[in-house]
Amino acid sequence: MAGICFIGLGNMGGPMAANLVKAGLTVTGFDLVESLRDAAANAGVKTVTQLTEAIEGADTVITMLPAGAHVLSVWREIVPRLARGTLVIDCSTIDVASALQAHELATAAGLRSVDAPVSGGTIGAKNATLTFMAGGEPKAFAAAQPILEKMGAKIIHCGGAGAGQAAKICNNMILGISMIGVCEAFSLGERLGLSHQALFDVASTSSGQCWSLTSYCPVPGPVPASPANNNYKPGFAAALMLKDLRLAQDAASATGTATPLGTHAQELYEAFTEAGHGAVDFSGIIAHLRRQSRE
Ligand code: NAD
């Protein structure tokens, strides 16, 4: 293997690139931000100051960038410069339309391309326990799999181009909706005089059971590791949840799919972030729901 180029060394990309180094791979990294390049260099990534320099000699390129516009801009610059057969993997969470455009750019240039967004957050990125949901041709996926395994615990091939992004936004729409449902139940339980622990003990072993309750309980106490016990410090910031809910709604509009609860979840997270809470963990929306209750 000639080497891996990793573009975007932020909260997720930095630790992911570091895990590739830990696994013994040669990684060249690039980010626009100097301090992030320095942090990656401390983790053993060979860093460079130009995007085009980063891809020299790479047989695999991974991007981990904020949104579709960033991914397309970077791919438009690098794709024409890469040797035919190079594997390009985008791990960012982006809209399905941009993911498809990126695949088209790559395949038209004779490259192998995979969309592989992740679940598991910054802790999963650090601990190499991410779940990757991948889209692309079986041969491209087969080439990507051993590399993704060095950064994650579960790698799922969801289908052709764009299928990874599709799975990611559908999953996160469930998460946004289910978190609001759990928050509403605790809010109502409080008014009915139920203790948090009693509601948790019942719902976590009954039909109300879900990840938002059992792994990420939005009230302090029942799940000690949840952000509710740490003043709603993220975790997964409300602004990122809103980003993903908007991606789901874009896809729902484009395909004419009715997702009324997804629409409402987006509106609620919009109101929460517009009120200045975008940097709060997404489970903190329980405070916003409580504020809407009658005095
Ligand atoms: P981040 O903002 O910390 O990192 C993105 C990095 O991309 C930044 O460091 C930025 O400087 C860099 N960048 C932007 N344009 C660039 C360019 N042209 N060339 C090189 N570098 C460039 O974001 P993050 O939290 O690491 O998230 C990355 C992606 O992963 C996003 O799509 C996000 O939605 C997704 N994601 C994040 C989490 C999370 O918990 N943070 C979880 C799952 C998925």
From TrEMBL:
The active site is at 168. Pathway: Amino-acid degradation; L-valine degradation. The keyword Oxidoreductase applies. InterPro entries: 3-OH-isobutyrate_DH-rel_CS, 6-PGluconate_DH-like_C_sf, 6PGD_dom2, 6PGDH_NADP-bd, HIBADH, HIBADH-like_NADP-bd, HIBADH-related, NAD(P)-bd_dom_sf. Residues 4-159 form the 6-phosphogluconate dehydrogenase NADP-binding domain. GO terms for molecular function: 3-hydroxyisobutyrate dehydrogenase activity; NAD binding; NADP binding. Keywords: Branched-chain amino acid catabolism, NAD, Oxidoreductase. Signal peptide: none annotated. It catalyses: 3-hydroxy-2-methylpropanoate + NAD(+) = 2-methyl-3-oxopropanoate + NADH + H(+). Its EC number is 1.1.1.31. One of its GO terms (biological process) is L-valine catabolic process. SUPFAM superfamilies: 6-phosphogluconate dehydrogenase C-terminal domain-like, NAD(P)-binding Rossmann-fold domains. Residues 162-288 form the 3-hydroxyisobutyrate dehydrogenase-like NAD-binding domain. Belongs to the HIBADH-related family. This is 3-hydroxyisobutyrate dehydrogenase. It comes from Afipia carboxidovorans (strain ATCC 49405 / DSM 1227 / KCTC 32145 / OM5) (Oligotropha carboxidovorans). The gene is mmsB.
